[in-house]
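User: My collaborator sent over this chain with a note saying "see what the structure looks like." That's all I know about it. Can you take a look?
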Amino acid sequence: MKACVFTLGCKMNEVESASLMRGLEERGYETTDELGYADLYLLNTCAVTAEAERKSRQAVARMRKFNPAAPIAVCGCASERDGAAFLEKEGVVLVLGAQNKGKVLDVLEKRGIFRETEHSFCELPPPKQVKTRALLRIQDGCDRFCSYCVIPYLRGRSRSRSAASVLCEAEHCAAGEIVLTGVDISSYRDGETGLGELLLLLKKVPARIRLGSLEAGIVGEKFLSQMKEAENVVPHFHLSLQSGSSAVLKAMNRRYTREEYLACCRKIYEFFPDAAITTDIIVGFPGETEEDFEESLSVIGEAGFARVHCFPFSSRPGTAAAKKKDLPAAVKKERMGRITEVAARAESQYISRFLGAERVVLFEENGGYTENYIRVYANGAAEGMLARVKLTGLYQDGAFAEITEVIR
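Assistant: Without extra context I'll predict from the sequence alone. Here is the result:
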């Protein structure tokens, strides 16, 4: 029996799907994450944007083309928001939400919509082993309720995995790099153990540790000192921004100003001069003026971002921002074009700082990453190789390099 686990959306969905694949294999299934013929389909959906929801619904039709007789189970954020829309589709026999997708393996024989709100962290089987980068889920849910975001309503309130469970999975992980992921890992808390203390516990794990998305509020002397003490934590900070305008940040219910965010960036550079700070910026939030947008453009250079993920505002029903008047699509498209150019220049400038220097790279199937998140390509590299390289020039979405030493 073959099962296909198809995933849309965030890294959380990716790691949860990898866990579900592991669980299906333990139940005797052969698994794949690529759409094709299968005896069972499991669709892990996304609802962060209207486009993500549309693609989630379309995936059902794509599955049915490969095997119209196979049952389809659906879980994730899009089915949490509107389970009936999926259950009415031909072939779908089971619908779960985002908060209880860990139970999908135990209820595959059921039919209809299965819902159960999680009040504690839902454990899943360890993901399938990889030898390069592994995602390790440490937290779920969110208490921040940003005005544009539907995720707290779908995944529920913040819940953290026990530090003992995190450490156990990390110690048994074969990957050369482990990425700590969650909806809001900055809020991680297991008793007296916050994210900084967790990093110290992971110090003995023989792998690089990379952090998922962080909130500005966690960046302080104590956390940065703990991160530096941990030694195996790489200097890469994905520090969510969303707008360079303090007025827009307030309307978004983000709990910092532009200057407070930039102060966090300066503090990071004090501790880690070569740090990569990457971020997300939403373009065209309701009420965003041309002056507000110009502040988003200028903050990219002031913060010294290594990479910026820009995307247009997408109104999500049920959020506070959905009640506001949306900007014209043409305005958002024009601003997206401008900010994408600025972001590309900033990324090239960041990479250029390190040309001629040596960095350590963990290679994957096609290229690899330095500790400070520069994408690197090199002749003679092999998947799983850890090597010291000399960056020689800009190339594609990163840099080309010469291997100077194979570490392992």
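A starting point for your reply to your collaborator: The radius of gyration is 22 Å.
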